[in-house]
Amino acid sequence: MAAALQTAAALMASSNLVVNSERFRFGSLLRSPAGRKGSVLVVKSDGRHSVSFNAGLRGGHLITNAVAAKSEASAKSTDSKPGHEVLLFEALREGLEEEMDRDPRVCIMGEDVGHYGGSYKVTKGLAEKYGDLRVLDTPIAENSFTGMGIGAAMMGLRPVVEGMNMGFLLLAFNQISNNCGMLHYTSGGQFTIPIVIRGPGGVGRQLGAEHSQRLESYFQSIPGLQMVACSTPYNAKGLMKAAIRSENPVVLFEHVLLYNLKERIPDEDYICCLEEAEMVRPGEQVTILTYSRMRYHVMQAAKTLVNKGYDPEVIDIRSLKPFDLYRIGNSVKKTHRVLIVEECMRTGGIGASLRAAIIDNFWDYLDAPVMCLSSQDVPTPYAGTLEDWTVVQPAQIVAAVEQLCQ
Amino acid sequence: MAVSRLASSSLSKLLLRPLSAPPFSRHFSAAASDDDWTVLTIETSIPFTGHRIDPPSRSVDTTRKELLSFFRDMARMRRMEISADSLYKAKLIRGFCHLYDGQEAVAIGMEAAITKRDSIITAYRDHCTFLGRGGTLVEVFSELMGRRSGCSKGKGGSMHFYKKEAGFYGGHGIVGAQVPLGCGLAFAQKYSKDETVTFALYGDGAANQGQLFEALNISALWDLPVILVCENNHYGMGTAEWRASKSPAYYKRGDYVPGLKVDGMDVLAVKQACKFAKEHVLKNGPIILEMDTYRYHGHSMSDPGSTYRTRDEISGVRQERDPIERVRKLILTYEMACASELKDIEKEIRKEVDEAIRQAKESPMPDPFELFTNVYVKGYGVEALGADRKEVKAFLP
């Protein structure tokens, strides 16, 4: 199906992405190339676009990372705006459901994902629809059911393993590190492990130290693993679908506090590229790199900063392994100042690796030291005030930007 | 001190348990034993012991062709392991090298009972299991020496042999981690309604791993077609089984899961048990097989193997229970081949193994760029090009 784009106005209305209108130049592309079979317009979030042909497309058209608008023929929405509103956990569920419909090899394993519907309702209703063989309630045995998911993946299934809380996956660390990450390499390419390991992590509301862990810092050195972190319903659904379709093992980090975010997402089938970062707010003065829940603290700080006259560029890195150094690098080359805001701890977190990567690759473009705001190196305390002091707050972000831009 | 010496000598006595009765019964269905396909019924040396299950019969059907193939394959495995020993001492094989000689009957007997569509997964003592699944000697020696023509392109090593087409899933270094993987394979087989089974092998040392019991619980809950095979060679590296396990009856450890204890040095017993197990799990869910076997070498090439057991014990087992000698005796007693023919087979095998080593030695080391291949699969769309990527591409399917 040809995806014809309408005016830029329709595009702007369909998502909460803030984009510069001059970046979109669609005049020459309004008439899409011939071929009902599958020419697709690919629009990247920074405005680059390309048209490609697609022979043998399976079912529906596929738009990667596109702010999609519907063609005239299918404008059936009763709302004036295209798409539908969902909460983030519903978006994840939609992604799961669409992939399970599309590919019979996708199955879900985890504690309380089936009859209970998922501890965060991500898998609610799926067990009734797909049955006990595809949505499997496991006993509390992370080490073994993660191993079983990996074994099933070796044989060609595409399991989605849920850790009820990412912290519990520490018990499965051996399976994730040695078997999941390394089997493709040690078998000389014979086995692929198309598994998705997902679950909520991060600091919640006074959940205590053991339930507030940030596992991205522990998993980041495992070779062969891909890690992504979702932050909005749009990218949650897109990343979930891309992760399931990927042949690599992907760890999808969700955040406990973000499950009830509401957003309008497109009705069409879309995926988000696993290795891409997302431009949240373009700017000229300082690059702020962040992911997951800290994106919202950064955006809150950005409001204050804009009022004070600063112009921060905010990028949600999304891909924690590998880093999208292309987008990050372009930003650094433009602004020459970098602030990393993350929820990991200072020692050995994602920010530490990102800082090293930026210094290695973009040293010549930096006008100021790369600053990294991370959580304190302490177990997350229970008391509310102490917990607030553990993670980065918007006021600290504002202060850091002011210091960087002196 | 006295207690431990007493215990270890009683262990030795246990291992040297002589054959109480002649290893065969004189029931032939045909007078001449020249015919390759004539079915003979032979009794196993000792009966099976069952836990929550009726053990299969001691009488095993076999043919001359099968027995000769057992002899040839086991002799090939034995020769391969001994050559690997010399290659290791010559520093052509480095790192860890865990040898399987003494335990060949388990690999061969299992192969005789199943098809290549069934899956086998084992731990690091995998050279012979790989060979049994259809691997070639050249692949084995090349992988051990880290060469390009190895089964894992030289990137896996001794503990990472895999053969996907033949249903051999490795080759795993971490003790016990292969058991959940094996249960996962069985889950996939059940999901795809294949009517095939998975054999997940582990050792007496790994039998104390928690993940094993976790996986067993899930397999029993979901009725997965997995057979857990404990290759009990009585030593977990340097620790004898009575010092590591409160209950060394590994076939009973499953509690609610039925178990069978098998003489792992008798290839016909192993074959019978595996056939029985396959039929059982396709209907009833998991089963545990304990193979009572023995390894002549130490745990690995860095372990002399004599600090925790006596040389008398090792040579005793070699005399009384060696699997190859047992098959040789069977063949000679039934006059299926004469001694010189068997000697010729062994000579051929020696030549085969030497030729494979020569070929493997000539194979080159992997190319430097192979360092970065197979870390990720070039999957949906984007290529992961590393930290200095210059471009992000998205290819649609």
UniProtKB/TrEMBL annotation, chain A:
<comment type="subunit">
    <text>Tetramer of 2 alpha and 2 beta subunits.</text>
</comment>
<keyword id="KW-0809">Transit peptide</keyword>
<keyword id="KW-0150">Chloroplast</keyword>
<dbReference type="InterPro" id="IPR033248">
    <property type="entry name" value="Transketolase_C"/>
</dbReference>
<dbReference type="InterPro" id="IPR029061">
    <property type="entry name" value="THDP-binding"/>
</dbReference>
<keyword id="KW-0560">Oxidoreductase</keyword>
<protein>
    <recommendedName>
        <fullName>pyruvate dehydrogenase (acetyl-transferring)</fullName>
        <ecNumber>1.2.4.1</ecNumber>
    </recommendedName>
</protein>
<keyword id="KW-0934">Plastid</keyword>
<comment type="function">
    <text>The pyruvate dehydrogenase complex catalyzes the overall conversion of pyruvate to acetyl-CoA and CO(2). It contains multiple copies of three enzymatic components: pyruvate dehydrogenase (E1), dihydrolipoamide acetyltransferase (E2) and lipoamide dehydrogenase (E3).</text>
</comment>
<dbReference type="InterPro" id="IPR009014">
    <property type="entry name" value="Transketo_C/PFOR_II"/>
</dbReference>
<feature type="domain" description="Transketolase-like pyrimidine-binding">
    <location>
        <begin position="86"/>
        <end position="261"/>
    </location>
</feature>
<keyword id="KW-0670">Pyruvate</keyword>
<dbReference type="Pfam" id="PF02779">
    <property type="entry name" value="Transket_pyr"/>
</dbReference>
<keyword id="KW-0479">Metal-binding</keyword>
<dbReference type="GO" id="GO:0009507">
    <property type="term" value="C:chloroplast"/>
</dbReference>
<keyword id="KW-0630">Potassium</keyword>
<dbReference type="GO" id="GO:0046872">
    <property type="term" value="F:metal ion binding"/>
</dbReference>
<keyword id="KW-0786">Thiamine pyrophosphate</keyword>
<dbReference type="Pfam" id="PF02780">
    <property type="entry name" value="Transketolase_C"/>
</dbReference>
<dbReference type="InterPro" id="IPR005475">
    <property type="entry name" value="Transketolase-like_Pyr-bd"/>
</dbReference>
<dbReference type="GO" id="GO:0004739">
    <property type="term" value="F:pyruvate dehydrogenase (acetyl-transferring) activity"/>
</dbReference>
From TrEMBL, chain B:
<dbReference type="InterPro" id="IPR017597">
    <property type="entry name" value="Pyrv_DH_E1_asu_subgrp-y"/>
</dbReference>
<dbReference type="InterPro" id="IPR050642">
    <property type="entry name" value="PDH_E1_Alpha_Subunit"/>
</dbReference>
<dbReference type="Pfam" id="PF00676">
    <property type="entry name" value="E1_dh"/>
</dbReference>
<dbReference type="InterPro" id="IPR029061">
    <property type="entry name" value="THDP-binding"/>
</dbReference>
<dbReference type="InterPro" id="IPR001017">
    <property type="entry name" value="DH_E1"/>
</dbReference>
<feature type="domain" description="Dehydrogenase E1 component">
    <location>
        <begin position="72"/>
        <end position="368"/>
    </location>
</feature>
<comment type="function">
    <text>The pyruvate dehydrogenase complex catalyzes the overall conversion of pyruvate to acetyl-CoA and CO(2). It contains multiple copies of three enzymatic components: pyruvate dehydrogenase (E1), dihydrolipoamide acetyltransferase (E2) and lipoamide dehydrogenase (E3).</text>
</comment>
<comment type="subunit">
    <text>Tetramer of 2 alpha and 2 beta subunits.</text>
</comment>
<dbReference type="GO" id="GO:0004739">
    <property type="term" value="F:pyruvate dehydrogenase (acetyl-transferring) activity"/>
</dbReference>
<protein>
    <recommendedName>
        <fullName>Pyruvate dehydrogenase E1 component subunit alpha</fullName>
        <ecNumber>1.2.4.1</ecNumber>
    </recommendedName>
</protein>
<keyword id="KW-0786">Thiamine pyrophosphate</keyword>
<keyword id="KW-0670">Pyruvate</keyword>
<keyword id="KW-0560">Oxidoreductase</keyword>
<dbReference type="GO" id="GO:0006086">
    <property type="term" value="P:pyruvate decarboxylation to acetyl-CoA"/>
</dbReference>
